[in-house]
Structure formats: C-alpha cells, structure tokens
Write a structure and sequence with these properties.
The protein is built from eight helices and no strands.
Length: 189
C-alpha cells in the first residue's frame, strides 16, 4: 500500500514539473479553432451546394458525367479561370466549398503566424528563420508561381478534380486528427 501511495506522489510531482511551452500552446490553440472553423465551413458550404440554395458553376446533376473529363476541359467549358481565378466565382456554391477547403489548406500558415511573435519576442533567431521559411514556402506553393503545365500529364490524371477532392479530403482528416491530438496533449479542449 505504501508503494502505491509513493508512486502516486511521484506521478503527481512529475506531472507538476512538466510545463508546455507557450509557443506550443498557441500553435495548438490556433490549430484547434481554425480546424473547427474549417470543418464547420466545409459542412455548411457543402450543405448549400447539395441543397441548391445558391446555384453552382457546375450543376450537381452533371457532375458524375464530368468526372471522366480532365480539369482543363471543365475549366474551359464552364469559364473557370485557372490558378486563383476561381475566386471571381466565389458567389457560386461549389466555389464556396472550394474556398472552405482552401481555408483549411491555409491553416498551417495561420499557426506559424501565431507563433512568430513569440519567437521574435524571445529573440530565438533560428526559430524565427525556420518559421519565416515555412511561411514563405507555403505561400509560394499556394501562389501558383511554381506551376507545372500538366497538359502532358492529363493521361495520368484524367480525373484531376476527383484527385483534388480526395487530396483535400485526406488533408482535412490529417488536420482534424492533429488538432485533436494537440488538444488532448496540451489540454486546450
């Protein structure tokens, strides 16, 4: 019995000595809330798209027949600009859903931006450099400046929009699981 009591005291004292750094708490908090906002916005915009409350660019009933086409054909057929040009159609329900997915893809940038002032204040130059490089690379990748013309790859990805959908679907679950793990680990739930 004494061994059990001593073990409990040891566990409690070791738990009290563990303190989560503020940058990790901030990152976890931003990840938690942005993932929740992203999940809500995806569900909300998907409901708008499915219900037909707002008209889409690509009609829902035509979508299954169009999945066999490449994205270049879809963009040309429906007047969707490539790159970030789809933002001009944000008033359409399917583009709203795409915007919600894009927000979720930008969550790491938000998380890095939230911890950057902490590293600057602590004068941790290496961490400031790493965070700035991460943000720069993510923004550069999202900008479309480094793009590959995929006309020659159309045979490989004939169903590029389906590929896009599953990529974001997997990305969503990675963010959801990561946010839940961070939430439990850092007690920010």
């Amino acid at each position: 019995m004494k061994g059990d009591v001593r073990m409990d005291k040891t566990i409690k004292s070791s738990e009290q000595n563990i303190e989560t750094p503020i940058d990790q708490k901030r990152y976890a908090l931003v990840l938690k809330w942005s993932a929740r906002i992203g999940l809500f916005s995806i569900l909300f915009t998907f409901f708008i798209y499915i219900s037909g409350l707002i008209s889409p660019v690509i009609p829902l009933e035509r979508l299954p027949h169009l999945w066999v086409r490449n994205s270049m054909f879809l963009n040309e057929s429906f007047g969707i600009a490539t790159g970030w040009g789809w933002m001009s159609l944000i008033s359409k329900s399917d583009m709203m859903a795409k915007a919600a997915l894009t927000f979720l893809a930008c969550v790491p940038i938000l998380c890095y931006l939230s911890v950057l002032p902490i590293y600057v204040k602590k004068k941790e130059i290496v961490m400031v450099f790493i965070v700035l490089m991460e943000i720069s690379i993510l923004i550069l990748a999202a900008s479309g400046l480094l793009k590959v013309e995929y006309e020659e790859y159309c045979d490989l990805f004939e169903k590029i929009d389906l590929f896009w959908f599953f990529s974001y679907f997997i990305l969503f679950f990675i963010f959801f699981i990561t946010s839940r793990l961070c939430c439990k680990r850092y007690h920010t739930c």
